[in-house]
Amino acid sequence: MNTIFRKSMLSVAGLAFAGGVFAGPIAAHAATPAVDAKPVAVTVQSAAPRPQGDQSRISLNDEQTANVKAIIAATKKAGLPERAAVISIATSLQESKLENLGHLGDLNDHDSLGLFQQRPSSGWGTPEQITDPAYSTTAFLKGLKQVDGWQDMALTDAAQTVQVSAYPDAYAQWEQQATDLVAQYWNS
After folding, report:
1. pLDDT tens, 40-71?
2. Residue 16 has pLDDT above 70, yes or no
């Protein structure tokens, strides 16, 4: 059970308990006739983190959609929850717009490659590995798992801790689209 959903359920249970403690004895002594009550279904939605700031969105082509599916598959293979896929996809949206980029020459100030713009010179892997979506996602997720409390962090903080970007707040703008993509493809 994911942490956010568990906390939501505990909050609801706590409110119900508190309501019973304070209202229960009073209600038990009230002089009201019994009512033929029918059970009511209550839907509790998990409190997913709200995206921070203005959100960006792009249309995806077939290659970008295939990369979304590769990120989700690698996340599932790593045994991580949907939130890890959301963070991964938002990071890739910021770093490469979900395109598996090769060396960009003068357009790139370092040796950054692939979906996450990982650098061979920083130990992320060989150029061939970094441009493999499954490998690069697994490498990103390995870094994410080393971040204490990443599950409950703001997306941009979790991504920045792994990526160490010059633009640490830029990841937040992709959270809604990443969330929508995970919702669309997680079970497909």
Report:
1. 443 333 444 566 678 999 999 999 999 999 99
2. no
41: left (phi over 0), alpha (psi -120 to 50) or beta: beta
Q: How far is CA 41 from the centre of its chain?
A: 29
Indicate the residue type of 135. Y
CA angle 144, 113, 54 (to 5 degrees): 60
Q: Is 125 left (phi over 0), alpha (psi -120 to 50) or beta?
A: left
pTM: 0.71
- Is the Cα torsion angle 123, 128, 134, 137 positive or negative in sign? positive
Q: How confident is the model at residue 154 (pLDDT cuts 50, 70, 90)?
A: very high
Per-residue confidence (pLDDT) for residue 166, from 0 to 100: 87
Buried b / exposed e over 134-161, threshold 16 CB at 10 Å, is: ebbbbbbbebbeebeebbebbbbbbbbb
Residue that has been written with the tokens 């090769």 in this structure: 102
Maximal CA-CA distance, the chain: 82
Q: What's the pLDDT at 90?
A: 97
